[in-house]
Amino acid sequence: MVDFLWWSVVIGIGGTIAMDLWALLLAAVFGLPKPNWGLVGRWFVHLAKGTFFHKDITAAQAVPNEAALGWFSHYAIGILYGGALIVFAGREWVSNPTFLPAWIIGLVTVGAGWFVLQPGMGAGWAASLRPNPMQIRALNLISHTVFAAGMFATALLFSRV
User: What's the average model confidence in pLDDT over 65-72?
Assistant: First the structure.
C-alpha cells in the first residue's frame, strides 16, 4: 500500500508539473491566459457549502485562501489520477511504463473538466457557453496529453533509478 501511495504521489505530481509548464509555455509563446486555480479553489469551497453550479464563478463570493486551495486541489487531483493510472495499468506498469495507458487516463480525465468543473463554474458542458469552445476543448485535450506524457516520463525516470 505504501508503494502504491508513493507512486501515485510521484507520478501524479510529475504529470501535474508537466501540465503547469505547458500552461506557462502557452502563456509565454501565444499569450494565452494562465489557469486561474484560485477560481477552482473558490468553486470547491462553494461546492462544500452546497452550490455545484454557478452562472459565473467570478461573480461568486471570494473565499479566503482560494488560490492556495485551488493549487492544492490541482495537485491533489493529479495525485488521484496518478493512482487511477496505476490501478488501470496494473502495479507492474510502474516498473515498465508505456505511454498508452497514461494517455488513456489523460484523455479520460478531460471528462472531469468538461462534465464537472466547467459546467460547475459556469462555462457550460465542455465549455459550450464560452465564445471559443472548440479552442478550449482542443487545448484541454492537448493539456491532458501533456499531463499523460508527464506521468509516463516521471514513471520512466523513476523506474530506472
Answer: 98
State how far the Cα of 118 lies from the Cα of 112, in Å rounded to an integer. 8
Q: State the amino acid at position 16 in one-letter form.
A: T
> Mean pLDDT, the chain, as a whole number?
97
What are the sequence ranges of the domains in the chain?
Answer: 2-159
Instruction: Pull the grid cell for residue 133.
Output: 469552445
For the chain, give percent helix, strand, coil, nearest 5: 80, 0, 20
- Asked if 106 and 150 count as a contact pair (C-beta separation under 8 A), the reply is no
Residue 64's closest CA among 88, 38, 96? 38
pTM of the model: 0.96
Burial class (CB in 10 A: 0-12, 13-18, 19+), 3: exposed
Q: 84 Cβ partners below 8 Å, 6+ apart? A: 105
**Nearest one of 26, 4, 9 to 146, comparing CA atoms:** 26
